[in-house]
Every structure is written in C-alpha cells, then in structure tokens.
C-alpha cells in the first residue's frame, strides 16, 4: 500500500515564516558575517578609510521577506559606500569577492 500525502499550503506558509526557520537563517548569516569580517581587507597605513569596510558588516532578518513577502529571510550586508567596489573590483582595484567567499566557507552547518 502506497503512502499518501496531502499538502497543507497554509501550514507550509506558517513554517516558512516561523521563528524556528528565522533563527536558523540568522545563525547561518552570523557564520557568514564572521567569515566576511575575517576575509575583509583593511587597507594600508595611508588609507583614509582603514578598517571601515571590515567594521561595516551587519546581519538583518525578518519573517516578511522573499519576493512575495511570505517567508523568513536573513541578510548579510556591508554598509560602507564602497563595498560594491571591494566585492567586484574596479579598473584600478582587483575584485576581492569577500561576501562570495564568506558564503561559500561559512554558510554550511558548523
């Protein structure tokens, strides 16, 4: 006899917005944040923004995220105005891919 399963869409929605899911996403985001801080370049002695990039990492979360605002999400962000240039590089500065490498290293279970 085959097992039967009936999807409860309302229940799945409640699960995706639950505090349990949000807490796990925040835990993983904090692992990624700590790895990003460790990988962040600091700059030389003459750099007027020395250490600003490294100290600008934050974790934010909500239970109203996603495209339809119907699930828990957690974000790892860097608030410095030049974070995009550090991540992707410019014609003068090579790309460091800090967030990419942090997500690859710190996003799993651990």
Descriptive notes:
The protein is 44% helix and 15% strand. It contains 5 helices and 2 strands, in the order H-H-H-E-E-H-H. It has one domain. Helix 2 crosses helix 5 (98-106). It has a two-stranded antiparallel sheet.
Q: What's the short story on this structure?
A:
The protein is of the alpha+beta class. Helices cover 44% and strands 15% of the residues. The protein has five helices and two strands, in the order αααββαα.
How do the strands of the widest beta sheet line up side by side? 1-2
What's the helical proportion of residues? Answer: 40-55%
How many structural domains are formed by the residues?
Answer: 1
Number of helices: 5
The biggest sheet, with number of strands, parallel, antiparallel or mixed sense and barrel status, is: 2 strands, antiparallel
Percent of residues in beta strands? 15-25%
What is the overall silhouette? elongated
Rg from C-alpha positions?
19 Å
Low-confidence segments: none
In sequence order, what are the helices and strands, one letter per element?
A: HHHEEHH
Query: How many DSSP-defined strands?
Result: 2
- Helical/strand content category: alpha+beta
C-alpha termini separation: 40 Å
What does the average pLDDT come to?
91
Throw out a few tags for this protein.
110 residues; alpha+beta; two-stranded antiparallel sheet; 2 strands; 15% strand
Helix/strand layout:
Layout: H1 9-16, H2 19-39, H3 52-55, E1 57-65, E2 71-78, H4 83-88, H5 98-106
Antiparallel strand pairs: 1-2
Helix pairs in contact: 2-5
């Amino acid at each position: 006899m085959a097992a039967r399963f009936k999807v409860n869409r309302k229940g799945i929605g409640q699960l995706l917005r639950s505090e349990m899911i949000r807490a796990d996403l925040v835990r993983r985001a904090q692992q990624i944040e700590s790895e990003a801080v460790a990988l962040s370049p600091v700059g030389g002695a003459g750099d007027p923004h020395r250490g600003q990039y490294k100290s600008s990492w934050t974790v934010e979360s909500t239970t109203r995220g996603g495209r339809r605002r119907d699930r828990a999400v957690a974000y790892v962000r860097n608030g410095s105005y030049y974070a995009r240039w550090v991540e992707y590089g410019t014609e003068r500065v090579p790309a460091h891919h800090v967030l990419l490498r942090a997500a690859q290293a710190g996003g799993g279970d651990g």
